[in-house]
Write a structure and sequence with these properties.
With about 350 residues, the protein is mostly beta strands. It has helices at about 5-25, 260-270, and strands spanning about 25-30, 35-40, 45-50, 55-60, 65-70, 75-80, 85-90, 95-100, 105-110, 115-120, 125, 135, 140-150, 150-155, 160-165, 170-175, 185-190, 190-195, 200-205, 210-215, 225, 240-245, 250-255, 280, 290, 295-300, 305-310, 315-320, 325-330, 335, 340-345. The two termini are about 40 Å apart.
């Protein structure tokens, strides 16, 4: 890796960590029931708004340092507070705070059951609807969690391992060493992706074997990953990669079998389209976060707290001076918290 790229990586990492401490006070997320939930740390409240008119419909006490908001299929949700070591579980009927292990860094629902990964206590906690808890040990320095079907996958940065857990029965299934110091984890069908800023590549690994199947050089400092356009007859799934050093979002085809690649290439050649080559998007600043709903994509620059819409011709600035989690993408707009909830139409 070039010296300049290494310096850029270290600078970007420090900036992201400094801003993350200051900006992780408001989290905005759309629920499966089409409500917008705002976890507001300074006000210590959790609120829900209708997406149609942004009218508040309920409000409950919430955590002081919200880190992330996750939802069950029913719309019931949970907010993590990594400082207070708590998970606040909420619905339209109320909210309650539960003590969890030290430094909860990631959470997800499998059905209506909540799972919380706690970094410093090295544990994965299962909390069912009644509040009954089970705990399993994990590797050290867990930084990300994701689910595929009813399986849970945890990534640990220091040793670069991915651990697989079953949700019911709750058990450890397997563990594989993939690559250390990845900045993001994304799962898609039978494969997983890890972004490696230090080496400038994305590694693809099999969920069945937990072994690397492919290494894809992408940009200079690939930081964040997002699955964009789904696979179809002509093209494989598109993987978007945020590279703040290059001020770009790079795009590449996701993993596909040899048979699928041959078939798509044959069909494209038959209709005269040629090989598929996803285009990159450039920005005036170094974006390090991506969010997509499959049709629209937004990008965020943590160093300048600027939010962009990704367009066919490049990018469009949406808002500035916002928190790193204080926005979300809906089917027709971007919702941003700027002292109040604001809807920015996509265009």
């Amino acid at each position: 890796m070039r010296v300049s790229a290494r310096i850029a990586f270290l600078s970007i990492t420090i900036l992201m960590q400094v801003r993350a401490v200051a900006a992780q006070d408001v989290v905005v997320r759309q629920s499966p029931s089409r409500l917008v939930v705002v976890a507001n740390g300074p006000e210590r409240r959790i609120e829900a708004y209708r997406t149609t008119d942004l009218e508040r419909i309920w409000r409950f006490d919430g955590p002081r340092h919200p880190r992330t908001v996750v939802f069950a299929p029913s719309g019931r949700g949970a907010v993590l507070d990594a400082v207070a070591n708590s998970a606040t579980i909420f619905s339209d009927r109320g909210a309650r705070s539960l003590r969890v292990g030290e430094t909860p860094v990631a959470a997800l629902f499998v059905g209506e059951t909540l799972f919380v990964a706690c970094r410093d206590s090295r544990s994965l906690e299962k909390i069912d609807e009644s509040g009954t808890r089970q705990v399993l040990p994990t590797a050290s320095d867990v930084s990300a969690a994701a689910t595929s079907g009813r399986r849970i996958y945890l990534y640990s940065r220091v040793d670069g391992t991915v651990e697989e857990f079953g949700s019911s029965p709750f058990r450890s299934i397997s563990k594989g060493r993939i690559a250390p110091f990845a900045s993001d984890l994304v799962l898609d069908d039978k494969v997983g992706y890890l972004s490696l800023p230090q080496s400038g590549e994305v590694v693809v690994f099999s969920l069945e074997t937990l072994k690397i199947t492919q290494r894809v050089p992408v940009g200079a400092v690939p930081v964040d990953l997002e699955l964009e356009r789904p696979a179809d007859t002509l093209s494989a799934r598109t993987l978007a990669v945020a590279d703040p050093s290059s001020k770009r979002i790079w795009r590449t085809e996701g993993a596909q079998s040899d048979t699928a690649a041959f078939t798509r290439g044959f069909v494209r050649g038959l209709i005269g389209m040629g090989l598929y080559s996803p285009r990159s998007s450039s920005f005036p600043t170094g974006v390090d976060r991506i969010r997509s709903n499959g049709r629209e994509t937004i990008a965020f620059d943590s160093s300048s707290a600027t939010l962009y819409q990704v367009t066919k011709k490049g990018s469009r600035q949406i808002a500035r001076d916002i928190g790193s989690e204080a926005f979300d993408l809906t089917s027709s707009s971007v919702l941003v918290w700027q002292q109040r909830l604001i809807s920015y139409p996509l265009r």
